[in-house]
Amino acid sequence: MNKNIKDMKIAIVGGGPSGLGLARVLQLRGCKYVKIYERSAHKYSRLQGSSLDLHANLGQRLIIAAGLQDQFKAVSRPDGECFSFCDKGGNLKIRKPYLKISSKRPEIDRGDLRDIIMDSLLPDTIEWDYHFKSLKQIENDQIELTFTNNDGTLVRDPVIADLVIGCDGVHSKVRKYVTLDQFKPEYMGITMIEGEVVDAKNTCPEIYNLVNQGLMFVMEDGIVMIAQQKSDGNIVFSFAQKVDKDWIKNQGFDLSSTSNSSDIKQFLKNKLIPSWSPIFHRLIDLSITPFKPRVLYRAPINQEWKSQPNITIIGDAAHSISPFAGLGCNIALYDSYELANILTKDMDSISQKSLIEKIQVFEKSMLNRWRTAAKETMQNENSVFLPNGIDALKKRIGGIYYYFNCILSVNKVVNYINYFTDLILLTK
């Protein structure tokens, strides 16, 4: 006999945006026993990184289902949709300006996104400092989960659940219980080093103007540099290159340490981008430390597995993807939206589908959607590292602005439109 989803004990492993979003929608639909188990010690123990754009047809679907449109609008930034392409001399080559009134992919800081969803959850939904270790099937079609605290010195009391959903990222420990360890993320061949500059308008005005509140690309000498502004005025930047997985380790320094930050900065300036403009060297000098390594992984495109009766995975735990199309968090949030819909669709019906049937429907749809996104991402990924990759990316992202940017002052026209729509309160 099927237990109604409203009465199931649902254990969500991982408190990132997809796990939080899933919990929020399930609670709104009447699910009474939803818990998130998050390894972080507390809400502010992990830095949240840069911002991301939420697409109207993907990530924003979750925002709407969660009833958080007003909160999202208050902290999202249509101006973050600006794209600028520069050369290593610091010269602006082309810019796609942002038009607020037609915004479909506004930027939001990861921390802001996490906070608006987290703050909407019922009290005590999140269990902090729960590090997942293992699970096993027990009687009555239930699952027993084992957790420790983050340093492993304390074993938590066992958690009993009717449904487990792994939202625990690219290095998911829940994944193997779903895929039976058949499919693992593969190193993409790309490693990034990330830094951050505080108050960029005053500390790095040249870079600040090039970023123009949005996103800036430089692609030269086998290096892809991305710089992005956050809502607090800081700029997060990264240098990506195609190297062996152990490249950072083989350089002989520890990026996570602040003790050798001077050596790391000298390496980045003199070895990685020696012939680039001094404005980029100054950006590195002013970066707060430690720098963050980003060793990129993606799921194998042919992965497919037999659905389990009471466990599933979503987001990067199911289908990690490279960041070169801005789709990773978007499809993860859409996973949450779709899974919540499928689980609760017929919960008041006498003839509701079994849990495994719902999981099967969801996983088939999720993997098909991810494959489409993965192919788009791989196209961008391949483009940016080609000698003429910047032209291909400029055409793809710049659209009509690529052809008309040099003919008329598009930026001035767009700025006037933005000023007018702000004035009459159509935009913020």
Describe this structure in words.
The strands form 4 sheets. This protein has a 7-stranded mixed beta sheet, with helices on both faces. A 5-stranded parallel beta sheet has the order 7-2-1-11-17. Strands 8-9-10 form a 3-stranded antiparallel beta sheet, with no helix packed on it. It is an alpha/beta fold and 428 residues long. The protein has 16 helices and 17 strands.
* Count of β-strands: 17
- Residues in helices, as a percent range: 25-40%
Q: Which oligomeric state applies?
A: single chain
Strand arrangement within the widest β-sheet reads 5-4-13-14-15-12-16
Percentage of residues in strands: 15-25%
Radius of gyration: 23 Å
Alpha-beta classification: alpha/beta
Distance between the termini: 52 Å
> What overall geometry do the principal axes of the alpha carbons give?
globular
Mean pLDDT across every amino acid position:
88
